[in-house]
Input
Amino acid sequence: MSEPIASLALNGVEVIDTFAEAFGMSAARVVVTAESARWAVEAARAATGYAASVIGCDAEAGLEKELTPAETPDGRPGVSLLFFAFSRDALQKALVNRVAQCILTCPTTACFNGLPIDPTRSIRIGGNLRFFGDGWQISKLLDGKRYWRVPVMDGEFLCEDVFGTAKGVAGGNILIVANTQASGLKAAEDAVDAARAVPGVILPFPGGVVRSGSKVGSKYKKLRASTNDAYCPSLRGAVKSELPDGVNAVYELVIDGLDLAAVERATWEAMLAATRVPGVKRITAGNYGGKLGPFHIRLRALIEGT
Amino acid sequence: MLKLTLRAPSSIPLEVEGITPERVAGLSPLEVAKLPVQHGNRAEPLGEFFEVIHDPKGTWADLHIAGDTSNVKFIGARMSAGNIYVENRVGMHAGAQMSGGSLTLDSGAAGWLGAEMRGGSIEVRGHAGDHVGAAYRGSRRGMTGGTIVVRGSAGDELGLLMRRGLIVAEGACGQFAGASMIAGTLALFGTVGERCGAGMKRGTILTATAPQLPPSFRFACEYRPSFLPLYLAHFARLGVNLPTGFGVGTLRCFRGDMLTGGKGEVLIGGGT
Output
């Protein structure tokens, strides 16, 4: 963690002049539709479950937006989901598994690509899932897009053959440092709502909030990440703490986006919302001294609008 | 835009295979007039039969063909790009084996329209003859890509041995539509002749009215396929006039032809 320099303020709250360190990931947007919004959301919940961090999951995923029938390819209610993984191969593997287990199985759903397709950077989803049809699958080619129709017990599952990918940006973050757990949580909730309103981003952790911020490494050799002791209020006095007096809770928001601009915008909206909540003492961000990722989201630049 | 106007109809068929937008691109009217066409059993210059003019204010098409073309065969055959517009009814084999571009026939077409077509699009704003998108005798595959829309009726053996692509007939069609179909989609919105889908291996036949299917078809279920809204949107983009009520609610699904594996489907969508 770089040495914080307190010289900024937003809504009267101290903002540390530091940066969030983000890194590139392969991203895909999956549009899931169903007969009702309820089943589209059910599919979304299942498909984006256990996808908080690539430290321990095959992908980072989340619900980007609920879609009206007018916004979906088949005129039904739907959801837009974003998935991030370290490589296109990893992304394809994660998506094939997740669509197979969580969307194909969900009543009435269909699955569509939500990004432009560059044939050199696309991943095959429906083309891998079609084998579930055991020879009864049907391919349809419409306007240059191939779809697979797989017979299932409530009719058919429709899935687009290939999905586009983008060079996404993952790991954008802010830390909300508050005087109480209640005020910190309220600030985090408001910040999540504000960040999620930005198109092209997800906050992959539960409810968009992380309470277990991590540092790289551990005293245990096999552990790649461990608790960020400098931000644990209960360890103040026992370790070199980053927390000022009067702080008793810290929440982190992690933001993944389809591009850097979306992550920056979401970070700004989150900061703005969080600093409006009484009890928030400080806003800062996590980084690894610039060694981890090429994208540095500087809080000063966001405040100064540069 | 080049405009080719047939000077006078002939009882002897005129075959214009090879007179395509990509072939005439960059040529002067005089050079185009020297291109060979087949008149009966003789090759003759195109200019013997057509007046060729360069018309910069003409239609959007690269080639505009006018005059009584009902005995002119192979218009747009083997074309791969560009646009052809024909004012009047055309003879056999229009758009046969074409692989790209668009062919717009403002009146009607005789048989073998788009036979063994591989890509591109054909629109007939009238009636079409037999064997639309079909395989030639002895061939193993008919149409393998592209789209044919017939605004009027079509004859027998529409989509015979079709392998891929989409054929839409807004009007009635004759016997053996989709016979021996291998894959692809037929959308038949008028009345459908007997033995529809006979021998089909795979593929989809969408109909508005219940066709008289061969006895080797079996009723499967009533349901609403997830892909139907995509096709309805596609039909809207193609400007297809759907029968009132078609695609509303569920479709009746029949599987067949059981004599050839039963992987084909006939979906009856209702509508009037």
Notes: Residues 111-268 of chain B form one domain. Chain B is about 5% helix and 30% strand. Chain B has a mean pLDDT of 95.
